[in-house]
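INPUT
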Amino acid sequence: MSPLICREQPPADLLIRRAHVLDPRAGIDAPHDVLVRQGTIAEIAPPGSLGTPDDAELVDGEGKHLFPAFVDPHVHLRTPGQEHKEDLDTGTRAAAAGGYCMVVAMPNTDPVVDSGPILRALRDAAAREARIPVGFMPCITQGMRGEHLTEMAELRELGALGFTDDGKPVTNAQMLRLALQYQRMIGGVLALHEEDPALSAGGSMHEGTVSAVLGITGIPSISESTMIARDALIAEYEGGRIHIQHVSAEESVRAIADAKARGVRITGEASPHHLTLTDEAVHGLDTRTKMNPPLRAEEDRKAVVDGLRDGTLDCIATDHAPHARDEKEVPFEQAPFGTTGLETAFAAVYTDLVVPGVLPLGLVLERMTSGAEILGLDVPRIERGRRADLTLVDLGEAWVVGEAGYESRSDNCVFAGRSLTGRVLMTVAAGAVAYRQRAFSVVGS
Amino acid sequence: MTARHLISVEHDLDRERIERIVDLARSFEEVAHRPIKKVPALRGRTILNLFYEASTRTRSSFELAAKRLSADVVNFAASGSSVEKGESLKDTVKTLSAHKPDAVVVRTPWSGSAQLVAEWSGAAVVNAGDGKHEHPTQALLDVYTLVRKLGSLDGAKIWIVGDILHSRVARSNVQAFRLMGAEVTLAGPPTLMPRGIETLGCTVRHDLDDLKEADVVYALRMQNERIQQPYLPSLREYATRFQIHGRRLGPRQVLMHPGPVNRGVELSGEVVDSPQAVITAQVESGVVVRMAVLYELLEGPRAPEGAQQRAEVLA
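OUTPUT
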């Protein structure tokens, strides 16, 4: 059973002409014509060399870049039960608008995804509503209560990519140990939200100079790093496979690097907001800057960037966490954690890290897709004969986040109002056109 | 600096504005000594007290200040109101703003809420305490009290002692005292000292060994109602290390406390009643300073004519 699922869409026939094709994995970095026939990459040829077939849409790629479309192993699509925040349709529309061709939904919904029937119903809904392929990670523990394992083996047979209690840590070490023993038997990955609730209790932002001045209870970086160190030791002992979600602190990056050096089967992800923002952004107490783990200090941000560069952190994941406006329009300490991120991920990282020369574009593109590798999925690649998973981007176009609204149902984006460079014009996911920017004109058809 | 609101010392006050408010407060001083304690300065203006947290002294101080300026005062307390029926802060503010108050005085247990009220209401907003964040009128009345007592804060050494972690008074006062030229030391156990608080430009100590150097000793209230975790092994042990008592307080030092005092915890009974203590003067200052704040926000920086003349006569 394929772990990824989306609604049926007509396969694309496209000729993308003269776009600068950049795929570090495929070793391409030059202008080309790319022909997509029936959703498959049929031809990659020198620019201007391919004639337009009668039945294909012609896309002018001149001055634009064509990348393998992105993969996000960590999003919240809020279905079932919280459709006032997001649903499978709006969430995957936001993903496509951000250049993504596959996303993995977290199970902390209402009810949580902790049983076969719920997972099956969710996959059925995705087959009707999702615009790009969606994968699911059910819970590690029943009800996400941390007390009893879910039926992991059965869930895995029903298409579970892995397991997570995201939003909550697996506080009980014995529970994690049992889950790792099961994980080793059935495969998949355990994705861990690392937080010691005794250390983070009552906290709303990073514990540091800004929280000291604002008088807001802090979430210390050790609430994350100590749990990563513990869980890496448990995974090492059991030979299990763990993935650390949204790494935010310097000590956490170090704990993962140490574990990798010991040969622990551990991977890590960084979110665009932890890569580009610090707790200074929280100073105005805008609730859009409230997320868990929180925006941390500049040393932490730099360590996350360095970790992404040297491979300690394997991929970029948004932790796209939509919330309704009235839920966020409350005093900071009362607001729920989370920022949306799918529509801004590439542009934020490109603007703040690639343009200033901190990270090379090729590396960012790899990290925007390597989430697939972590989950044992095919990594999108621009190669003849491969299914078309493509995103066409104008690296020269600046746009103001939120000015034209969002594809997501929610507008709690931490980058709102920022001018970002790099605009997704078109996304092809699983061989079908999943997104086209409204203002982007197509030549001929 | 002029501003439409008084939300934080950090963003809304500079030395010039503090001095202006101190001058205005001094001009209102005389009103409290009249047989009829009222001036018509804010006649016809409406001031809304919006209190989401229990408060007797701050609320009554604001109410008295507004009434002495002849403003109409509406008190809104969260308990027994629509808040208990689940109304959000935003909807409450929008609803009450429909009555067109000229100023809203707001206290809540949540940092940043005064700023939100300012965004949602058309009125001038005065922060009367937002969570552990700031309490700017307390800082102003403390500055006023000290200016009256010492003449100036320039070069004064001020020690703030006690539970810094849970104190909005400490956060506002450090900044206001520094704006007025004082050197500030924070002293208390590490468990009640927020990590990174030095960023406000103060020194942090975990003992009272050099307390003698202080011109002013400002003791904070042990906020038992705010403390959800056992931050201290015991209040008894705390008192042995950090209580301000007769042997620790010198005869020329000024003793302050924002009230209400826990006698026998942060202060011994005898220092509360000592001549060094200006705790009741702080309460008196509260009314005139809040008159000055409300007046400055609603009428501008110049004192009303009558008050100004009498102040000069008094000086």
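end of record. DSSP finds eleven helices and nine strands in chain B.
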